[in-house]
Amino acid sequence: MGNAGMNALKILLNMPKIFWVNVALIVAFSLISNRYMTINNAINIMQQGAVLLVVTAAMTIVILSEGLDLSLGAVMTMAGIVSVLALRAGWPAPAAILAGVLSGAFLGAITGTLIALCKMSPFIASLGMQGVIYGFTLALTHSKAVFTDNAIFLLIGSRIGHYVPVAAILCGIIFLAVWAILHHTKFGRYVIAIGGNEAGARLSGVNTTFWKWFVYVFAGTVTAMGGVILAARLQVADPIVGVGWEFDAIAATVLGGTSLVKGRGDVSGSFLGVLLIVLLRNGMDVVEMPPIWEPALMGTIIILAIAFQVRASMREEARA
Amino acid sequence: MRRIPSSAAAESSSLASSEYVLQVRNVSKAFPGVQALDNVSFDLRPGEVHVLLGENGAGKSTLMKIIAGAYRPDAGEILIDGRPAVNLTPRKAQELGVGIIYQEFNLVPYLNVAENIFIDQLPTRQLIRLDHKTAHRKAREILASLGMEVPTHALAVELSTAQQQVVEVAKALTHKSRILIMDEPTASLTDREIEQLFMTIRELKSKGIGIIYISHRLREMKEIGDRVTVLRDGKYVGTHELSEVTVDSLVTMMVGREIDLLYEHEEVGPGEEVLRVEGLSSKATGLRDVSITLRRGEIVGLAGLVGSGRTELARAIFNADRHDAGKIIIFGKETKSKTPKDSVRNRVALLPEDRKRQGLALILSVAENVLSASLDKAFPRGWVDLRKQKSIAEEYIKILRIATPSGDQITQYLSGGNQQKVVIAKWLATGSEIFIFDEPTRGIDVGAKREIYAFMNKLKKENRAVLMVSSELPEVIGMSDRIFVMREGTIVAEFSRDEATQEKIISCAMDAIPEKSTGNGIDQNAA
């Protein structure tokens, strides 16, 4: 075996437990159902997971800064609605997409102002924003889903060569960009600094108020990209499509090994967290579990998995 | 990037005093209800270590914050390089070359060493992309210039306290600091780590950096300091060459009274054994086969370096942590207790080292804290009678002479010494008989220390038992009837009061001396 093989083995052995849970799930579901290991289902998983991956990446950044943004599901919803309404008003697709994304930045700026400047607790501020934003999505749409048939816009929801979903590729690119920003920009490092030791960072000359504010602007913007992509894929902007997404995003973040305190964790772990949630949900469909039971079972499994994860990270912290 | 005011007045004064890198002239600062600084002067030469000495509340940290631009003085002026520095802000002070290393941990745990050092000036290229390579190279250069080896890729959370401190120094140096304020830098360092820090400080001196050094450790400042300025109650007492003053005279200047009565030992004559630990081991905390005894009417000291397992032993006895093997026998009965709650019922009290977080609820009132461990006892029906709570608390406030306007005062506004007294009151209220003090006088001023010692002696006379963990050797020797020395998780020696000397204890506590040659092996006395 060559060096490359050894390295690959080493990486595999160092994979976190959640990686092996994912592997086990794939094996289990494919044994139960012969419809599981198909190209179509693989594409399904990609479609289902893509937008959640983007929202989770945004949520992970917020959580790494020792914050929380419960309004991200609503922001995602609003971004789709803004884009679709702009299209219906006759805007060209690129302008409509930009409007959707900017609406996320705007909403994030409000949340960030409440948290960083008004010193409100992130939980309360973002929960309040969630309510306000859903109020507006319902008012803007008169509580009805809005459709669009703009061909250019719908390209985002199309497939390349019959198989590869464009949306999944876009989401993958956004996810990688978030990873790069976390690791290779000042902003990314300040996210860790604010989460790990905000007072210390401030005394070291970091403008923590500004960067904390920017965390929510960034998260809102990234989430809005996910919202626009989702609307394009579904060809419709639904005023409550994002309900519960923040929960999935937080769960995926924690499952991926990011701690709710101290700025410990990484976006890369969140990928595995998203995969776990999507594999579970997709697997339940494939093995034809009654859909009524899906939320309860999902909730239980996620709570168990997180309890496991929290215990593991506590043990790790005790050792440090 | 230094902005220097260039008024005519500044020009003229710069000629007169280029000898000093910093001059503080007649500075005063008042806070509501207290004159924190009253007409205080202070100066600093390049390349010197100038110790700032005073009891807690003497005004050291106020002065430090004024120099660092965090507070604005009510009166007086500050000159940096002979030029008046007006309207200082933290940013401006930094630009003028003032660096400050706070006592608290100011590093970011999950950023690496290089990122921590350059946290506010991370190098970038291509617009916003960080230049990790340059950061690490520069970080290595700075650390090397301090004569220290710290891996720049290590996360701050992985470093020892001493390494963290070096990173803090390096951080200050990136701002071309020529005035470095160090606030109790050795507070949580072991002796060996202190030696390393002193090497770093000497390196800084040779670079011409002036250091303001705040510490409570008198002998240590004699070793590293050049001059000392003493403050008392916000007033300037005097400045001296450290080579010309004795430790005793420094203490006298600080407190304005003699200190020879600080440690008062009284022979009570030990009574029955109340605590016996046999072969205690714990993988999680590193305790190995620990055996000690404690009798009524005695104070037993637990000496050793930081990290030798003293706190771990104290916590294990109190059932704050679990152990894997060994017995804890309290009042002649082997305890089956598993939680701190059982320990309280067994009349054991733990007064932890970190009293702000583990000993008290700072945001609660004094009365609530006093009753916090004995609510079941005082109110067996489960209904807390606030008037009774207050009257019980007032009783202890009187007994312990806790300086507080009333039992309703929020505990965090009390001084360190009075907070410690509240912790003592809490355990008196439970009727505890075995008191485990972990660093009882850390961060407490001399006056309050004396009261804490008097109180420990009182416990002794009341036929209770005291186990005292302490890093201050004079304290251990001055107060204890017997002394156990720990090293690497186990007891390496036991001394009687008459046998114990600082030299003996230190040599047992350091691993330079092999265990057997101490001559006072534990087993001799355990029988």
Structure description:
The complex is a heterodimer of chains A (320) and B (527). Chain A is mostly helical and 320 residues long. Chain A has 13 helices and four strands. The longest helix of chain A is centred in the C-terminal third of the chain and has 27 residues, at 208-234. The two termini of chain A are 35 Å apart. With 527 residues, chain B is an alpha/beta fold. Chain B is built from 20 helices and 22 strands. The longest helix of chain B has 16 residues, at 191-206. The interface between A and B is medium-sized, with 22 and 26 residues.
Overall spatial form of chain A: globular
Q: Strand portion of chain A, in percent?
A: under 5%
CATH class of chain A: Mainly Alpha
Q: What's the rounded overall pLDDT mean of chain B?
A: 85
**What Rg of chain B, in angstroms, do the CA atoms define?**
25 Å
- Biggest sheet of chain A, strands in spatial order? 1-4
Distance between the termini of chain A: 35 Å
What fraction strand of chain B?
Answer: 15-25%
- How would you describe the shape of chain B? globular
Query: Based on DSSP secondary structure assignment, what is the total number of beta strands of chain A?
Result: 4
Q: What is the β-strand count of chain B?
A: 22
As residue ranges, the low-confidence spans of chain A are: none
Total helices of chain A: the number is 13
The biggest chain-chain interface is: A-B, 22 and 26 residues
Which structural class fits the helix and strand makeup of chain B? alpha/beta
The major β-sheet of chain A equals:
2 strands, antiparallel
User: Biggest β-sheet of chain B, characterized?
Assistant: 6 strands, mixed
